[in-house]
Design a protein that fits this description.
heterodimer; A: 8 helices; globular; B: about 240 residues; about 80% helix
Chain lengths: ~220, ~240
């Protein structure tokens, strides 16, 4: 447990001092939303349905950026080797990396949700607090997949290309469920209305956090 | 031994595929409502079955590779993924050919179609990863992990797209159950065709495994030759 806290606080401190990946993720999320508003046009880019879709597209793009950085930053200065020869369990390393990636993504998506409400002419009252649990569930699932798979894609020469090819198809069920649940939340329905979708998100998170925790030791390593 | 097994499987596949072709084109009666197009069903369903079976083999081989190790499990997973991808593609194409005259559209986001297409994307990613990491020694472990994670994804995909479609009935409402195999000959034809395709899966697996094993052996020989040449160069 303490190894988890040590690695997580290290990543958080690093991020607090530089802020690079969170700021980049916020900027990217905002850009995705802007691009979608322009691409869809003012007539389509309004209302909860379009807003939920746009926000989840932003989540995928921003998450891809954040996840690929999490492990790559470690390998840059040989820090990964230091982490691997430390007595910390590799599954704990996975949990810490997953937690750090999820926290950065939640910060970025929190900003993204505010932009979404503004850009898509929605009401702030109640929509954001109802969205929060849905987005957090989506972020955890995405970070669980991306942290595991970025350990693989980081090893390929064109790794940045490989990560979305692996993560996006696997994220489809969470995306479907998340967009539907978010659309319901943004349109003012209580969380109970999206119960089935939230159940799918929870199942997705449990499944892939467990899979990542068990399988991470097989993919992490040097070279 | 495996060569003989391959030959036996190949011959059996040839015989059974010939029989099933005769049954599909000459023996089985034409379906009353859909007409001649319905015969594609006898290719479509076996393709789907082979694709799903092959993808299941990928996951099982992945588990065994991580558990026991051994090149054979990795080769099996690789071969099964390639064959699964082939038949998944054929399933999507034959389904699309059937859907145009029957549903009036090449593609619709029906839950089964969506699930198949997501599967196709998943294993496309798996094969692309194998291609990009070919030189890496850890590719076998990576492939095992991706194969397992992809298989874990499949039930969630099925549940979510089914719910997605029912909540969203704006999409064309489709009922695959409408095939109605009224004639017992239809069921027999389907079963023979499935058996033929299953044999073909086994045969293709043995062929692909032999190629992969030969490649591993060739790599070992090439390494041994390189080492020998290097030593000779040193001693001169």
């Amino acid at each position: 447990m303490s190894a988890f806290v040590v690695i997580l606080t290290k990543d958080l401190r690093l991020e607090l001092r530089s802020g690079t990946s969170t700021i980049a993720m916020v900027a990217l999320a905002m850009l995705v939303l802007v691009v979608l508003v322009f691409a869809l046009g003012p007539a389509v880019a309004r209302g909860p349905e379009a807003a939920a879709a746009a926000l989840w597209i932003a989540l995928v793009f921003a998450g891809m950026l954040g996840a690929s950085r999490a492990l790559m930053a470690e390998s840059e200065n040989g820090c990964l080797r230091a982490l691997l020869i430390s007595p910390a369990d590799r599954a704990v390393l996975y949990a810490a990396k997953l937690a750090a990636a999820a926290i950065f993504m939640i910060v970025a998506l929190g900003a993204g949700a505010i932009f979404t409400v503004l850009f898509f002419n929605l009401e702030f009252s109640g929509a954001l607090p109802r969205m929060a649990p849905i987005l957090i569930l989506g972020v955890i699932g995405f970070a669980a997949l991306a942290t595991l798979l970025s350990a693989i894609s980081g090893r390929a020469r064109g790794g940045e290309l490989l990560l979305p090819l692996l993560v996006v198809p696997m994220f489809v069920p969470a995306l479907v469920a998340g967009v539907r649940a978010s659309a319901a939340a943004l349109s003012g329905a209580p969380l109970g209305a999206a119960r089935d979708w939230i159940a799918i998100l929870v199942a997705f998170d449990v499944l892939f956090v467990a899979a990542g925790y068990l399988l991470f030791e097989h993919v992490i390593g040097e070279e | 031994m495996s060569k003989r097994l391959g030959n036996i499987l190949g011959a059996a596949t040839l015989v059974l595929i010939t029989v099933s072709l005769w049954m599909i084109f000459a023996w089985v009666p034409t379906e009353a409502e859909e007409g001649i197009v319905q015969r594609i069903f006898y290719f479509h369903v076996p393709c789907a079955w082979v694709a799903f079976a092959a993808f299941a083999i990928v996951a099982v081989a992945g588990v065994f590779f991580l558990w026991l190790g051994g090149q054979i499990w990795d080769d099996l997973g690789y071969a099964a993924a390639e064959i699964g991808m082939l038949f998944c593609t054929l399933m999507l194409i034959t389904g699309s050919l059937w859907a145009k005259p029957i549903w009036g559209t090449w593609w619709t986001w029906d839950s089964r179609l969506t699930t198949s297409f997501v599967l196709w994307l998943l294993y496309g990613g798996y094969l692309m990863m194998r291609g990009m990491l070919e030189e890496s020694e850890q590719v076998a472990r990576f492939a095992a992990v991706v194969g397992i994670v992809a298989a874990l994804d499949v039930p969630v995909v099925i549940v979510s797209v089914r719910l997605w479609r029912t909540i969203h009935p704006a999409v064309l409402v489709t009922r695959q159950g409408g095939h109605g195999l009224q004639d017992p000959r239809m069921i027999v034809t389907l079963l023979v065709s499935i058996a033929a395709f299953t044999l073909m899966l086994a045969w293709l697996l043995t062929l692909r495994l032999a190629v992969l094993r030969a490649r591993t052996r060739l790599g070992a020989i090439a390494r041994a030759v390189a080492i020998a040449e290097f030593r000779r160069g040193q001693s001169v």
